[in-house]
Structures are given as C-alpha cells and as structure tokens.
Design goal:
The complex is a heterodimer. By secondary structure, chain A is an alpha/beta fold. In chain A, about 40% of the residues lie in helices and about 25% in strands. Chain A has a single domain, classed as 3-Layer(aba) Sandwich (Pyruvate-ferredoxin Oxidoreductase, domain 3). A 6-stranded mixed beta sheet of chain A has the order 2-3-1-4-5-6, with helices on both faces. In chain A, strand 4, helix 2 and strand 5 form a beta-alpha-beta unit. The chains are: A alpha/beta, B alpha/beta.
Chain lengths: ~180, ~425
C-alpha cells in the first residue's frame, strides 16, 4: 500500500460503528500500518447520526478525517444520502439493504446485503451487525488480514461477547466470499 | 490527608524534621516509576485523552480531582482506575470550582496535581486558576475544547478557548498554555505541562481539540528511561529562614509543602514574601513583577514551535492543533503543484512566540491563519504586523462544529498565490 486508504463507517447511534472503527484501526496496527480513527456523533447514546473514519497508510497521516473515501459502509438511508457523494469514483460502497432502500447514484462497486436482517436471523440479534458488516468490508477490500481482525475483535470487545463477535466475523467473511462468486 | 493513610502503619514521626519528611515522597516516587517502567511500550492504538492520562501518570501526577465532562471524560475515567493502583488519589468533586480548589490544595501539600475539563468547566475554574497563579502553586488544567459559548455542542470541535486560556482569569497574570496536534504529542505535552508547572510554580493549561482528545492513532510511547520528569525545588534552608516567595535571578523560588515542617501563609490577596497580605505598593509591585518576569525572562525555555517546509516558503500558514494537520495535508497538495508554502505551528501558544512570528512576517508574502473560531490567534499575528512591508494576513474561520479541511486551506492558498 503506497497511498493512504480512507474508510467511512456510517449509520445511526447505537449501531456500534465507532466500535467497528476501533476494531478496524487496531487490526491495521497489528498489520504494522499507520492509522488514525476519528468519529463524529451527536450527544445522544442511541439514534441520531454516527460515523467513524479510519485512515490506514504507510506514511504519516496528516489530516485524520476521511474526506475522499476509498470505501463507504452505510447502514442507514440518511448516512448513505449524506456521504455517497464523497466516495471516490473507484471507491467501494457497501450498504445495508435492511435500511437503505434508495441509491441516489449508482457506484460501480456496490455491495448490497441486508446485514441487519442477516444478523437477526443467523446470529440471533441485530447487535452484531457492526462486526458482521465490518468483516464483510475487510474481506472485500482486503485492507487488513483476517487474522489481525480476529485478534483485534478479541482485544476490543468485552470478554462475554467475544464468541458472538467471532461468529459474526466468520459469517461476514463467508458472505463476502459467496458474494464474490 | 488521604494519601497518608497507607503510611500510617509504620507510624514513623513525619512531622519532626524537614529532612526526614523530604525523603518520604522521594521513596513513593521511585516506587511509582518502577511500576511505570514495567509497562509495555509497543505500538498501540490510543486516544488523545488516554495519552493525556498516561502522560500525567508518567510525569508523576498522583492527585486528580475533577468533574467529568465530554469531551474530556476519558482522562478522569482512566485516572480513576489507574491512580489508586499506584498509591495516588482520585476524587470526583461536586463541580469544577471545587475541582480546581482541590488540586491547588493537594499541590500545596506536596502532590503533583492535575484536572481535566471542557469549556463550561473551564469557565468555572477561572477564579481558581487565578488563585493558583497568584499563590504560585503548581498544577495543570487540561481543557479539551468543545464548541461554545455555554454548553454549546459537547461532541463538536472548536478552538474558541485560545484567548480565554490567556485572559480568562481577572487581573494581569502569567499564562503558560500548550497545544498538541497528535496523540503522541498529547502525551509529550502533558508531561511538559506538569514539568513546567513544577518548575515555574504556576497553573499550566493544556489545550486539546475535541478531535485530538477523541481521535485514536497508532502510537508508540517513549520508554520511561527517555521521559524527563521535573520535580519542584524544595527549600534547603532551616524552616525559620524560609520565604514562600523568595526572590532570585530566575524568579523561581523553592516551594515547601504543608507537613514538611515549614510554616507559610497562602492567600489570594496580594502578598509579601512570606505570603501575608499587603497593601504596600512596593511589595505589590514586586509581586506583580515577579509573576510577569518568571515568564518573560524564561521565554526561550517556554516557547516551542514547529517549522514545517518553511525554508523557501512564500506563503506561510500559522495555526495550532487539529487545523495544523489540515494545513500539513494542504501543503503537501500545494507543493505537488509547485506552490511554495509552509507551516509555522506553535506548541506553546502562550506565551506567544513573538520572535518567530516577526521573522515569519518579514520573510513571506502572505500569512494564512486558519482557526476554528471567529478570529483569536489572528489578533496576535495582526498585533505583530507593524511594517507596511510585512506580510498580508488572511483568515480562514469556521465555527459550526465541522473541521477546516485540507481542501479549504488549499483553496485559500491558490487564491493568494
């Protein structure tokens, strides 16, 4: 990787996007990259907007917010509408079709899956949508290694939830592999 | 106080001689640093606020009193769990007025004390900060700035407290204010803030941007062997010779702690060398001069500035904190297009780096001052623009909770080049 890679994870408060950002950033550190992770959210703990930016690079990162993303994950319609225009032409768009019903413009590399529904049905709770979609994202982009992501999840979530999140991660990888085929 | 509790068991007479009492804190200090050395120092992902907390611990801070407030809460959170483990004290106070008073008192009793807050709390602390300054008591206030005025926007960045950190307390008073632009520098400048407070016997303010406080970066903290810690100078004279505010060439006088066997008086009223209130104009003038001179006579030690791509620059950007990072990104883009632009970034914003700014104003055609406020730092640049031949000063200002981006700065660079 010569240039920096900018990722924005967006949705609403309570979806665990900032935790997903931390997990991704920590995994990138394990892969020996330079990383910044910033976030923007409202004062409420649920609802409202929420986003986490992760920039991964091998050079010094000057500005820590993503301005021109290589990859955008949008878990809500509002987030998708708001940030889609800052996605690069060659960028990857990943949307959760449980909530994102309309696309303002068609991106070339769009991945559409009902992540929240899948988490609800196959993992028993929508709570691991963040890790499920993050694992999908890392598999599709190849931005961090699978092993680092796994270690990072184990280090970042509370011990009681490690198993659930590893399960979500594996499901995310599987979905990505099947999607590519 | 509470700190003494664990040492109660041996029941040693700790109030007799200053010498034996002085040996005591040194003992706990070495125990503290022993703990710190064993902490792993590898590259990790760390938040700005975490770096402040660990910087405080590594600098030897052993007392924190505060009232948690977004976006500074993590500092209190980490110190609440870490300080008791290391024999330190954490108190959650009823408000910020009590917090600043508690750290001032703790410092007078010999502790290295720090508090962390944000805009609304920083406003409440102003009187206490003035008290710490007039009584020349070392302490550190970390202000993770959020958007104001009043409660404003708790989770949004702004650089609105630049002037408040200089002039917030009434009366002429010295100010040492440091301003980091990264997670690593947050760690370094926290240590420096504690060191300077101990050395200059004053309240030092560390200003962080909300984004720096909440941002996570890959960072490897220096090993403890490379961390330089300064402790206050203790008096060596017999107790009856001790003056709490002793004159000397560098305007830095030794500081006894309550419990050391030295007797001194502390008051917010203008005081004489022993600390007792005075209305004599000579003594009042001496006191005010000392407060001023301990900053102005030591300005080379206090001012820290980063010069980035300035050697051949025709345009200079002058800014601190997160805006400086946007500026660096903009400079990389502008240089790619052949525009000669550089950055001058103060790490110490007060005292203001007058000499470096004057030199910059002589050497470049235009100075761009981006800041997340309605024009605070730019006033200082304009103050120093005396000559017609000095550079043209241009502002970029934004106060809406959003950052000034590299593209905003690049656009301005192109406009003026």
């Amino acid at each position: 990787m010569t240039k920096s890679y900018e990722i924005r994870l967006s949705g609403s408060g309570g979806q665990g996007l900032i935790l997903a950002g931390i997990i991704l950033a920590r995994a990138a550190v394990l892969d020996k990259h330079k990383v910044t992770q910033t976030q923007s959210y409202g004062p409420e703990s649920r609802g409202g907007y929420s986003r986490a930016d992760v920039i991964i690079s091998d050079r010094e990162i000057f500005f820590p917010e993503a301005t021109n993303f290589n990859c955008l994950l949008a878990l809500t319609q509002e987030a998708c509408d708001k940030y889609l225009f800052d996605l690069r032409d060659t960028g990857i768009l990943i949307i959760d079709t449980t909530f994102v019903k309309n696309l303002a413009l068609a991106a070339d590399n769009t991945y559409e899956l009902p992540f929240t529904e899948i988490a609800q049905e196959q993992l028993g709770s929508a709570i691991s949508t963040n890790v499920l979609s993050l694992a999908f994202l890392t598999k599709v982009t190849g931005i961090v290694s699978d092993k680092s992501l796994e270690i990072s999840i184990a280090e970042s979530v509370k011990p009681a939830f490690v198993d659930l999140n590893i399960k979500a991660m594996k499901l995310g990888f599987k979905l990505a592999e099947e999607y590519q085929v | 106080m509470q700190e003494k509790k664990p040492s109660k068991a041996p029941k040693s007479p700790n109030a007799t001689k200053a010498k034996s009492a002085a040996a005591k804190p040194a003992k706990t200090e070495s125990k503290l640093s022993e703990l710190q050395v064993t902490r792993e120092r590898k590259t990790v992902i760390m938040q700005g606020n975490e770096a402040v907390a660990y910087g405080a611990l590594d600098a030897g801070v052993n007392f924190f009193a505060g009232y948690p407030i977004t976006p500074s809460t993590e500092v209190a959170e980490i110190l609440a769990s870490e300080l008791p483990k290391r024999g330190g004290t954490f108190i959650q106070m009823e408000d910020e007025i009590a917090s600043i008073c508690a750290i001032t008192g703790a410092s007078l009793a010999g502790a290295k004390a720090l508090t962390a807050t944000s805009g609304p709390g920083f406003s409440l602390m102003q009187e206490g900060i003035g008290f710490a300054k007039i009584t020349e008591t070392p302490c550190v206030v970390v202000n993770v700035q959020r958007m104001g005025p009043s409660t404003g926007m708790p989770t949004s960045p702004a650089q609105g407290d630049i002037m408040q950190s200089r002039w917030g307390s009434h009366g002429d008073s010295p100010a040492i204010v440091l301003y980091p632009d990264s997670v690593k520098e947050s760690y370094e400048l926290t240590i420096r803030a504690v060191n300077l407070s101990e050395k200059y016997r004053t309240c030092v303010v560390l200003l962080l941007d909300e984004v720096i406080g909440h941002m996570r970066e890959s960072v490897r903290l220096p090993d403890m062997a490379n961390v330089r810690v300064i402790n206050r100078i203790k008096p060596t004279v017999p107790p009856h010779w001790y003056k709490h505010y002793d004159e000397n060439q560098k305007y830095l006088s030794p500081l006894a702690s309550y419990g050391d066997g030295y007797r001194f008086h502390v008051t917010g009223l203008t005081h004489d060398a022993h600390g007792f209130p005075t209305n004599k104009s000579v003594e009042a003038g001496d006191m005010m001069d000392r407060l001023r001179k301990k900053i102005t006579y030591n300005i080379r030690d206090l001012v820290q500035i980063e010069s980035h791509e300035m050697d051949d620059a025709k345009i200079a950007i002058f800014t601190a904190g997160i805006t400086a990072r946007a500026a660096k990104a903009a400079i990389a883009m502008a240089r790619y297009e052949g525009i000669k632009v550089g950055l001058l970034r103060p790490l110490t914003i007060w005292p203001f780096p007058d000499d470096a700014v004057r030199k910059m104003l002589r050497n470049v055609d235009t100075v761009i001052v981006p800041e997340l406020n309605q024009g605070q730092m730019i006033r200082e640049i304009r103050r120093l623009t005396k000559d017609k031949s000095d550079s043209n000063v241009v502002a970029i200002q934004r106060v809406n909770g959003q950052l000034i981006t590299p593209n905003d700065i690049l656009r301005k660079i192109k406009e003026v080049s």
